[in-house]
Structure formats: C-alpha cells, structure tokens
Amino acid sequence: MKGIQLLIGLLVVGSVIGAQPVGARTATHTGVQASPSAAEPASVVAHGDASSTAVDGASAAVDVDASTPPETADEYLATFQGMEGVQAFEQYTQFETIRSLAVSKLQVVEFDDATAREMNTTLTLLRSFRTAYGAAQNGSTNASLAAANRTLSSVSALQEQGLTYAPLAEIALSRFYETRGDEFLQAATNASSTPAQIEQLRLASVTFERAGASQKFSDVNLRYEQVRSEYRRDVETMNASASTADAFLSTCSSCSSVQAALASSDVATFDRYLRTGSTLSALREAESLAGKHGLDERQASFAATREAVAATRTTLAAASVALLVGYGLVLALLAMVVAHRLVAWNETVEASQVGEIVMLEEVNDA
To answer: Could you tell me if 130 and 262 lie in one domain?
Structure first.
C-alpha cells in the first residue's frame, strides 16, 4: 500500500516538475513563501461541522475558514500546510499523502486556472473527509455518511480531471466505508430492538456496497432482508391481535359488572365469554412477539389489554353462571308444572277406569 502511494506521489511530483520551466517554479515558490500569515486559527472548522472540532481540536492542525475558499497559490499552500497533523489524515494516510502532494505541487507549478480547479477539488476532498471522520468518531452517523458521500463526489471530480492521486483517495475512502460497515454490523448485533437492528444492518449493507466489499455486502444484505421480512410478518400478527382485542372490547363496553353484562344482552353473554378465549390467546402471542423484538412500549400495551380482557372474562363467566342458574330454575319450575299436570291427568285416567269397572259389575249383577 505504501509502495503504491510512494509511486503515485513520485509520478505526480515528477510530472509537474518536468512540465514547468525553472523560472516559473522559482517565482511561484518565492511568492508563496512571502505570505506566511495566510493561515488562521484551528478553531475554524470546514463547513461549520462541530464534530470535526471535537476530534481534531487536540492536534496542531490549522485551516483557513472554509466559508471563504482560498483564491491564490499562497492561500492554498497555507491551507494545506495548516492541515498537517489532522487525526483523520494520520489514520488514513492516503489523504495525508494527497495533502503532501498538493503542497509539493503548489511549490513547483504555475498557478493557473487548471491548477486552481485541481486545488479546490483536492481541498474539498480533504475537508469533507475530515468532517466524515470527525462525525464518525462522535457517533453522528448521518453526518458522517453525508460527508463521506461528498468525499466520494470529490473523488469522482478528481478522476474527471485526470489527476493521478485519485486512486489514493479511493483506497482510503473504501477503507473508511468498510470500517463504518463493520461498526454498523457490530451495532446490529448489540441492538436492543429489531427496528434498531434493521436500521444498523441497512447502514452496514450500504457502506459495504460503497466500500466495494462485495462478500460482506452480500452476507449483510441477505441478513437484512431476512430480519426485515420476519419483523414485518410479526408486526402484521401483532396488529391483527390488537384489532381483535379492540373489536371485542368495543362490543363489551358494558361488561364492567355481572349486572351490567346481563342487562346489556343476556343472550350474547355466552358468545362473549367464548370469544374471550381466542382474544386472550391472540394477545398472549402478540405480547410475546413484542418482547421478542424489543418493543417494550407495545409489549406493555398488550399486557394491559390482556389484563382488561381477562377481567372481562371473569365477569362474563360469573354472568354465564348466573344465567345458567336462572335458566335452571325456570326449567325446574316448568318441569314441576308439567309433572303436576301429568300426575293429575294420570289420577283422572285411573279414576275413570275405576268408574267403568264398577258400572260393568252392576250390569252383570242385574
């Protein structure tokens, strides 16, 4: 890796030195050295990103205000020199090599429009990566990836300009993306809920893809799709259970007591009682799924609903027993009336039969 960087650096320096006349190189170098005051305090951060300050504040790096980009060779040189010692570049040495190459080139070439465009692109590249690194160190995921994507755009700009050190930036940025991907993957493993795990897996998949880590991207993307599909199925089950519970409770709003349940509709009491069984079963499943996915609030909600349905089940059970006792008494009364009528009828029949026998005997005696 270092050999590639050194080779590219030598090619860049050699090409720019060979392409410029000696007088131009000397004049440019002298002009730059005459303006040592162009650098500004290190408290100024590229693009106003505070996370970069937190990470690089301890270093001796100095950078000019990004809101007023450099215009002259002196200003660009002071800016690049002021970025020496930035932690992001020390960690990803390819960017430090690019910075050094920019400093070297500014001291040996004539500063024309093409050079200005090149230096502007290079400075944008370095600043955006420093921001990406700083945000990553502070845990600012969105800011870090946004800055890394801006860095990727700068790499494309370097390639379009045909600059030979664009591959260095590609190597470093790919390593940065892969490192972030590994961190997201670890965060997914440690996630306390499935939604958080899915988000971390998504980020890992995206960063591995941008890093060009095809095998890691394939593995993580497959895992992401599997976890997301399972979660969606379970959410549908939980939603269905919640709808079942809501529908039941809405039809049994007057089931707060046995008297109220009987008064509302004594005929439907048995059906309501039977429905509590399936409703409780659905709520237990939903509560278990919510706990499985780390959905604490929803798990608590299902538990509360289950307790409400269980209390209603107890009320309906008592109401059902009361109805059964009532119906039993009515049936017993009806049975007594019928039995009494049967006994009376039987006595009448027997009496009539006795009368017929007496009359027959009297006829025979005559």
So the answer is: no
